[in-house]
């Protein structure tokens, strides 16, 4: 549809996303690698903060890592609940994702790694990778050490570059 309607023109997506399906829509747009230059969306404030969280931090999650893998996210401005009639029970914000033309890695390994790493937020990365990727704890520990990370590291403590390095190590297995 994009090629048919827009040809070689750059495409930008602008939407007010239903709050309960924000992450699935964003991930579909990013993972499909459509010829989209940027995505500007109004989302629930908490979702926008999670999407644009700095890595590493306690505020980041799987969606943070995934969005940062495919794009450069930024918060544009807040939108108060009082801006609408009738007023919703939540505040909103507008965020922009500038889609990266080239990705550091291609393939499914990164998605599985991020989902496994954030699958059990309170556990160490050794445990979450072992159970989420179905690998031996010793292999997970070896990969974490090879990536130069401390043995007790948790997923929210990793930068995007550390996730990429860990993914490269784990895909060598």
Explain what the structure shows:
It is a single chain. The chain has a four-stranded mixed sheet with strand order 1-2-4-3. The chain is built from eight helices and four strands. The N and C termini lie far apart (39 Å). By secondary structure, it is α+β, with helices and mostly antiparallel strands. Helix content is 41%, strand content 18%. The protein is globular.
Structure, briefly:
By secondary structure, the protein is of the alpha+beta class. The protein contains eight helices and four strands. Helix 2 packs parallel to helix 4 (62-70) and helix 5 packs across helix 8 (160-171).
List key phrases describing it.
single chain; 173 residues; alpha+beta; 4-stranded mixed β-sheet; globular
List the helices and strands and how they pair.
Blueprint: H1 2-6, E1 11-16, H2 22-31, E2 36-44, H3 45-51, H4 62-70, E3 71-79, E4 92-99, H5 109-117, H6 125-133, H7 137-146, H8 160-171
Parallel strand pairs: 1-2
Antiparallel strand pairs: 2-4, 3-4
User: Main β-sheet: number of strands, strand sense, barrel status?
Assistant: 4 strands, mixed
Which percent bin holds the helix content? 40-55%
State the end-to-end distance: 39 Å
Mean pLDDT: 90
Low-pLDDT residue intervals, each spanning 5 or more residues: none
Global Rg: 18 Å
Q: Would you count the extended β strands for me?
A: 4
**Helix count?**
8
* Major beta sheet, strand line-up: 1-2-4-3
Q: Give the SSE order as H and E letters.
A: HEHEHHEEHHHH
């Amino acid at each position: 549809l994009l090629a048919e309607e827009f040809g070689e023109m750059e495409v930008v997506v602008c939407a007010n996303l239903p709050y309960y399906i924000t992450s699935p829509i964003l991930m579909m747009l990013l993972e499909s690698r459509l010829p989209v230059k940027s995505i500007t969306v109004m989302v629930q404030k908490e979702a926008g903060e999670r999407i644009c969280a700095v890595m590493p931090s306690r505020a980041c999650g799987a969606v943070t890592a995934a969005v940062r893998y495919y794009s450069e996210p930024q918060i544009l401005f807040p939108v108060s609940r009082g801006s609408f009639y009738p007023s919703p029970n939540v505040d909103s914000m507008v965020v922009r994702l500038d889609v990266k033309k080239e990705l550091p890695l291609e393939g499914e390994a990164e998605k599985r790694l991020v989902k496994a790493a954030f699958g059990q937020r309170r556990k160490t990365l050794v445990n979450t990778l072992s159970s989420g990727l179905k690998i031996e704890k010793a292999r997970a520990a070896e990969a974490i050490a090879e990536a130069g990370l401390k043995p007790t590291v948790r997923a929210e403590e990793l930068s995007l570059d550390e996730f990429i390095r860990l993914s490269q190590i784990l895909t060598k297995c």
